[in-house]
Amino acid sequence: xxxxxxxxxxxxxxxxxxxxxxxxxxxxxxxxxxxxxxxxxxxxxxxxxxxxxxxxxxxxxxxxxxxxxxxxxxxxxxxxxxxxxxxxxxxxxxxxxxxxxxxxxxxxxxxxxxxxxxxxxxxxxxxxxxxxxxxxxxxx
Length: 140
Ligand code: DGI
Description:
Layout: E1 3-10, H1 12-16, H2 20-29, E2 33-40, H3 44-50, H4 60-67, E3 72-80, H5 82-90, H6 103-107, E4 116-118, H7 122-132
Antiparallel strand pairs: 1-3, 1-4, 2-3
This protein binds 2'-deoxyguanosine-5'-diphosphate.
Subunit structure: Homotetramer.
Protein name: Nucleoside diphosphate kinase
Subcellular location: Cytoplasm
């Protein structure tokens, strides 16, 4: 296992319900360290770029609408095997299928409004971190 960084977003449903601290507690209990964090309003362009791989999917418009509907908290998480660990801690995309104790099982409202994003590969983690953070904002 390697010490890795992954990119996380606490989505607008989390900021709207004022539960970002509760989600962060789950992240930290899982052994991941929040080494960068900021609250931002994502622009439409940023959301379209970020979710570019989904642009042909029927839910793309809805996804961009949602991600720009309120503040998000973007984060860099660090830890052993952080990418896979965080995917596990988040749970399945659809909260109905998410395992007990996962962020999406605990907090998510629907497949669209599912509280958290986490990178799915080392390559994407690097790209996603670079989209939102400069090196000096990440303090391990
Ligand atoms: O990596 P994930 O976030 O678990 O899942 P993904 O990369 O397949 O999809 C990215 C996001 O797109 C997901 O977190 C929520 C949204 N999404 C995925 N499938 C659906 C969806 N939104 C709606 N409304 N309907 C879907 O079927």
